[in-house]
Amino acid sequence: MKRWAIVGLSVVLLIVFCGLVDAGQPFKGKKITVSVNAGGRKASSSGDLFEWRDKWQELSGAELEIVEIPAGEHLEKIVVDNMTGANRFDASIIGSFWYGTLIAEGFIIPTEQWYNDPRMPKWPRDLMPAQEKLYKWGGKWYGVPFDHDGQVLYYRKDILNDPKWKAAFKKEKGYDMPVPPKTIDQLIDMSGFFNGKDWNGDGQPDSGIAMHLKVGGQGMYHFMTFSAPLTVLPGDKVDRYHNVYDFDPETMEPLVNDPGHVRALEMLIKLAKTGPDAQTGWALREAWTHFLIGKAVFCFTWGDLGALAQQKDSVVQGKLGIAVMPGSYEVWDGSKKEFVKLKEPNIVGNTTGGSWHGVIMKASKNQDVAYHLLAFHATKEVSQWAAATGWDARDPGRKVQFVKPYGDMDVSEYVKMGWDAEDAKAYSKGFHDVFSQKTTLPYLRIKGALEYWVALDRNLSEAMIGRMTAKEALDRCAKDWNEITNRLGKNDQLKLYREAIGYTP
Amino acid sequence: MAFPAVSHKHVKFAFLLPAVVWMLAFTVYPLFYALYMSFNKVKLTGPDTFVGLANYTRIFGDYYVGNSAKLTTIMVLTTVTLQVVIGLTLALIMNAEIAGRRYFRTLFSLPIFVAPIAIGYLGHTIFFEEGGPLNTVLTAVGFRPIPWLSHPTWAFVAICMIEVWIATPFCFMVLLAGLQGLPEEVYEAARLDYKSEWQIFKRITLPLLAPVILIVFLLRLISALRILDTVYALTAGGPGTATEVYSLITYRAAMKFFDFGYGAALAYVLLVVVMLILTFFFRRMREIYE
Q1: The domain containing residue B209 runs over which residues?
Q2: Which residues 208-237 in chain A show a CB within 8 A of chain B?
Q3: Which chain A residues are within 8 Å of B124, Cβ to Cβ?
Q4: Which ipTM was obtained for this model?
Q5: pTM here?
Q6: Any chain B CB within 8 A of the CB of A294?
Q7: pLDDT tens digit string along A87-107?
Q8: Domains plus CATH for chain A?
Q9: How far apart are the CA of A464 and the nearest CA of chain B, in angstroms?
């Protein structure tokens, strides 16, 4: 009798245990496949998926297959996968500029249906307003937070605050060196001042700025960020002339060759001359390296640079100044067809870049499992780890990722990950400021966004190497944009554009 | 149990079947499907729209295509000529009795085993302007550093250099094989008539080797017209549009911008050009050698 009682109790305990395990592993036995930009196990967005794979599998009970695809071919693979009905991917870590294509073709679905699902990890909806826009379409959340891109101005605060250089600057330029520069003109002046001088004491002339201007090296992002203060007319809402950048939301005519953009390109060419000639052939790696080895005073780029500056043996750690991009006292007003003067510089925030994040495929048979994975990566704990980690290309854009008083994180969390405390504070402030500006550069999320940007990229480069003037290059870009719009369907594109920027006629 | 008797006449078809199916599925079908696409506006989802010759007429008004056609032509003629000339020179040297000939032959053949895309990415380091190995050597011997990747002309030169380096071994190996196949008796007789090696080369070697040279030239020409990997990896067509070759435009149209109809039309135009070149060369060869 006793023996039977023990056996009975064991069976009951086993059933309870199995039940507990199942409750903790809601998707046991299932498998999902996620596509991500190739980067390996310790780099780029893919690194995070690998880093946390075991933990997530343990938590969910499901299996995760990670498919790495070169960034330049990722969208085409997703599109072909959906077009052919192969439907291999349950979720993908995509660039925000793919939304137009993926939404228009109906490849992805909103995610809100799982927010209150008790099986799912919970993440705070604390994205900075400019970032939140990228994760939504038509008021619905499609994306789950992962990466948050925006360009800030990095500068060497140790050099710019050095009294010797301050005095020399005043003597040469006739005014006090503003740290950080408040306007584009000041940035050009300061970068020009330092360019060619041996300010790092290595016996070699150094650079003012380092930029990535190679075709295919994301140079068009530099132009967008840089040109915004001259081209985005501030206003309380999005209308035909305010808070627009790419197209006239009434006619879908490109704005890329208006006088604001042309002047901005002329100024960018001027700024480029305060850095190495070679930078017209540089992609991210070369430009970032130039700054990280202490050869450039300025670099305006993404959060990755701030995190990379914290690596062991870094020569710039603890010397970083980080600020929102400088503005302009003059901005092009499309309604008046003239530059208008402002009392304060027009500072424009930006979400330039990919802001890579997860979306769920409509054709997936395991949408709930896919959401569980994405939500797991958006939890406070994983997001904070990602923000402070240098190699993973996941930049901060949420309150949980910023240090106090800009967010919830204690600076010691960053220090534990190898950061200099002052750099961490400047980093949080810089990105908090860039994502919370009243005026923000609108993000191009229409179908074929990449094609528009490639056209801009190759024409910018023509101007940068002097084969075309700024006006010629942007006129040809506008012609290319019109051709793309007409081919993709002007009415469809206009509808998507209006939805994407939140314009109501 | 005996298997049903199958006549030898029918067995051969069974053996041919896999190859035929393979050809139909992976050569003939894509070829015709691409032709179909070139006459349509192909949508990602939804039905295609017949547009007649619109994709073809668009090619002739496209600035980028005109630019890329010009660049590709110059690049192909330059690189292929250099590949054949250098390959022939190396083959002549390696055909002579010199010490370590076997090792040199292996050494000169090595680049052929390297993937062009890998060399393209390696090029970032080789041609790095601020202290890359090539500029370091140049400055060490008193030259100014060259803006390899930031200047339109030099970027074009850099691509050509890689192309020559990669494909010369192919020319070298084929021409060396051709040289080794030339009859020794002819040379023995020639040495009675001609005193200098140059005369022997000009009067004997070159005419005898001409069909091989022509074939090598032709094969390289066709291959070079499709150049993509090195450009894609090293310059992405830049700076500006200085290295934007024809295949890059085609690839971008179809696979980056999902403009499949236009991409197919671009590919077909290249196909026609290659066919015309082939026809011309083979006709000339027939005229000369038959």
Answers
A1: 63-248
A2: 214-217
A3: 286
A4: 0.87
A5: 0.89
A6: no
A7: 999 999 999 999 989 998 899
A8: 10-143+357-392 (3.40.190.10), 152-352+440-501 (3.40.190.10)
A9: 8
